[in-house]
Design a protein that fits this description.
Layout lengths: L1 E6 L4 E10 L6 E11 L1 H5 L6 H19 L14 H4 L3 H13 L7 E7 L3 H18 L3 E5 H7 L12 E6 L4 E8 L2 E7 L5 H11 L6 H14 L24 H12 L6 H30 L3 E5 L6 H7 L4 E3 L11 H12 L17
The structure holds 5'-O-[(R)-(carboxyoxy)(hydroxy)phosphoryl]adenosine and zinc ion (ZN).
Length: 368
């Protein structure tokens, strides 16, 4: 089955064309073409994602990205009235899309899978309306996908995972979740952050240290340097919030605030201090993630851990999680937001009997 995945929930515009095979116990995937446009440089100036800009960039970039995946030219009939209801507020996107469809061969494609939440609603809507319009023009069914399920299945591209139940740890800019996977498509949320997400804490601490957005990779570089240089963090002790709580929940807001208070007393936050803060902060994150994930695996009674989300691009976190059992990681490219994971989740949804639909809405705070 051939699937086109579409992802516009935050600051990456991404498309991926994949081929998928096998049943739910052993799905396999091959990427036939991908295209991704990151808006990081545009949002850097604002120190975070600026929704109106994200929306505009998605609308501008979708058709150019589509052209890099589907190159075969042809002359094709297309009825503009089919897409009017979806793209009436995006005249430029509508025009570009119709022009594309009229001049390109319809690809070998069975399903379009698109993220409908969680994320920034104005950004999500662009991807959704683009998917619906393209589905209508090509007469291809559209399936809506939860972005977090995308992160959850992202390691399936390189791993065969057939041992269930499993635990999934999802750590991104907006989420920190522990999930029991009974089988693909059957999930139970067993733990989550009660305040900030891990990636959010990384980004906020980075801002305190005057590092550029997104802060995760910046802090992680400094922390690594701090470990290599073996800098002492004795003068900068940070808490491990909820480390010993009986549940599987996390809290990262207190950790961020502790950094803020410690920095307040320091007149000159020089490079040495930044190394120390980054090293201790990352260690606090790792200690908490390890302990809670281990507890979750014990409670579920499994040795299988499936991780996903932008923060899992972090090598130190990966190396530590490896100790917990049979751990499945996505590649670095599939850790941060991408459309291949959305296409793969589309296949899983299809195997689970999801029915195509053109009536769904963006859901900013969508839960699994
Ligand atoms: O999954 P993702 O691309 O977008 C969301 O769905 O949120 O995750 C983005 C988050 C950001 O907070 C970013 O700072 C963090 O992932 N991140 C990292 C690293 N690379 C990205 N955090 C720590 N270490 C990294 N190497
Ligand atoms: Zn994400």
């Amino acid at each position: 089955m051939k699937i086109l995945g579409i992802e516009t929930s935050c600051d990456e515009t991404a498309l991926s064309y994949i081929s998928s095979m096998g049943d739910l116990s052993s799905p396999t995937f091959k990427v036939l073409g991908t295209a991704l446009n990151s808006q990081i440089e545009i949002h850097k100036e604002y120190g975070g994602v600026y929704p109106a800009l994200a929306k505009r960039e998605h609308a501008k970039n979708l058709v150019p990205l589509l052209k890099t995946i589907f190159k075969d030219k042809d002359e094709v009939q297309a009825d503009e009235s089919d897409v009017q209801i979806f793209l009436e507020r995006e005249p430029e996107l509508k025009e570009n899309l119709i022009d594309f469809v009229k001049t390109h061969k319809k690809p070998d494609l069975d399903i379009i899978a698109v993220t409908y939440g969680p994320g920034l609603e104005p950004a999500l809507w662009i991807g959704i309306n683009f998917a619906k319009a393209l589905g209508k023009l090509w007469n291809i069914p559209v399936i809506k996908i939860n972005h977090m399920e995308g992160h959850m299945v992202s390691s399936l591209l390189q791993s065969k995972i057939d041992s269930f139940p499993a635990v999934s740890l999802l750590i991104s800019g907006g989420h920190t979740e522990l999930i029991e996977i009974k089988k693909w498509g059957e999930y139970k949320l067993i733990g989550q952050t009660v305040d900030d997400a891990v990636g959010e804490a990384y980004d906020k601490v980075a801002r305190m240290l005057e590092l550029p957005y997104p802060g995760g990779p910046e802090i992680s570089k400094l922390a690594e340097m701090g470990r290599v240089k073996n800098v002492s963090t004795d003068d900068f002790p940070l808490p491990r919030p909820m480390l010993n709580s009986k549940d599987l929940n996390f809290s990262f807001s207190g950790l961020k605030t502790a950094v803020l208070y410690l920095l307040k007393d320091i007149e000159d936050v020089n490079d040495d201090i930044k190394l120390m803060v980054a090293k201790e902060f990352e260690q606090a994150v790792v200690d908490v993630l390890l302990k809670k994930t281990k507890k979750a695996m014990e409670e579920v009674g499994t040795d299988t851990l499936i991780v996903g989300g932008g923060v899992i691009a972090n090598q130190y976190i990966r190396d530590n999680l490896k100790e917990l059992g049979t751990v499945h990681f996505p590649t670095k490219e599939l850790s941060t937001d991408n459309a291949t994971m959305i296409a793969m989740a589309g296949y899983i949804a299809k195997l689970n009997g999801a029915s195509p639909d053109l009536d769904f809405k963006a859901v900013g705070n969508l839960k699994l």
